[in-house]
Amino acid sequence: MKAESKYSNKKFLVLGLAKSGFAVAKLLKKMNSEVTVVDSNSLDGNTEAKELLDQGFKVITGSNDADLVDTSFDYVVKNPGIPYSNELIKHAQELNIPVITEPEIAYSFSDAQMVAVTGTNGKTTVTTLIQLMLAHSPKFKQSFYAGNIGIPISDVIQKATKDDVVVTELSSFQLEGTIDLHPHVAVLNNIYSAHIDFHGTRANYIKAKMHITKNQTKDDYFIVNWNQDEWRQLAKDTQAQVVPFSDEQELEHGAYVKNNEIYYDKEFILNTDVIKVPGEHNVQNALAAINVAKIFNVSNEDIINVLTSFKGVKHRIQFVDQFNGRKFYNDSKATNIEATTVALEAFGDQELTLIAGGLDRGNGFDELVPQLKNVKNIVLYGETADKMVDAATKANVTNIIKVSNLAEAVPEAYRQSDDGDVILLSPAAASWDQFDTFEQRGDQFIEEVEGLKGEA
Question: What residues have CB less than 8 Å from 437, skipping those under 6 apart?
Fold first, then answer.
C-alpha cells in the first residue's frame, strides 16, 4: 500500500457505515486524516459505530442532519446507497465539498494492479471468474477480489502489493462517486435499465457506469459486450484499447462463440456445454473473463479448468438442494426484470415454480411476460405482488398465488410444485421492502429450504 495519497492528512465526514464506511473510515485514520463518522442508525446494536468509538473516532449516530457538515471538511465519503437527494449530501455540494465513495479512496492508496468490472447483471460472476483465472497469471503473485462483491476495497488494498492484482466489482452507485479511479482493465458486461429511482434517468445511469473508463488511456483496456449497438457506441467514448466479446457474432479480436464453441482471436478455447453454470448469460460472463485472462497471459488450460469447475456465486442462480424430485435455486441477486429474465431463460423448457416480488420502484412487469411461458406456478409476495399478478395473468400462468412474505412463499411453492420441477427464487425486484440486503433475502430462502427438507 502507498504511504500517502491526495486523501492523506485531510478532514473527512464519512456518511453511512455498513462494511464500506467502516473500512474506509479506518483506512483514512491510518493515513493521518481526521474522520467524523455519521450514521443514521442509533447506537444501540450498531456494532461498527461502537467499535469506532472505542478506537477514538468521532461518531454521530441517529442523525444525518445537513448542519453536520460545514466548510471545515475537505471531503464527504458517502455510503454508495445513500442518494444524492440526502439533505447532508445536498448541503455538502452547496458548500462545494466533493462527495466521493469508498473505491475512490481505496484506489488512491493501492499499489496493486486494478481490474474493474461493472454492468447491470453478471458483475459478481465475472469478477469471481476473473479473480480465479488471474490466480494463474504469471504476471501476479496473488489475485484478490473486492468491492460490491461484499468485501471492502479499503481492506483488500492493505494486503495487496505491487506484485498483486485486485479485481473489483463496482456498482453505478460506487462509480458515480469517483474522480481519479483508473483501472488498467475495465469491463462493461452489459447495461439495461436499472436504478432509475436513484439516478433519475437512464442517461445518468449510463454516465455513472462509464466512469469506469473515464480516466483510462491508450495503455489500458476496455472490455465490452458487443451484442447490442448501444454498447458498441459506448465503446467510442473510451481512450483505452477496446476488446469486445460476443456470443452472437464472430469477432476479429476478442472472445466469441461460433457453433457452441468459444474462441479468442480465432483460437479455439472450449465448448460452451462444458461450462459448469447454466444459462446463455453465463457464456457471456465467461467470454468477458477470458478477454481479461488473455491480457494477463493466462493459459488456455487454466481458463478451461476454471470454467469447468466453477459452480456459480451465492445468490446468483445458486443451486441450493434437491429433494422429493424438486431442485431449489436461489437467485436473490435478481433485483430487476432483466436479471430474472436471464434466470428464466437459463432453465430453458424446464417447468418452473417461481417465487418473486419485492420493493416497488414504480415500474411494471410487462417485459417479463414472454419469459413466463414455462412458469406453471408463481408465488408472489412483497410490494410488487399485485403488479406481478397482472404480468402473470397476461402470460397465462395457470396458478398464481399471493402470500405475505418469503417464509410463507417457500412452503407454498413446494406444495404447488410437482416431481421434476425447479423451484426458483428470482424476485425481479430489490429486497428492501422486507430485507436489508439481497444477501439476507437469499439466506432466508436457503434456511426455509433446509427447514422444508427436514419436514418433507
Answer: 431
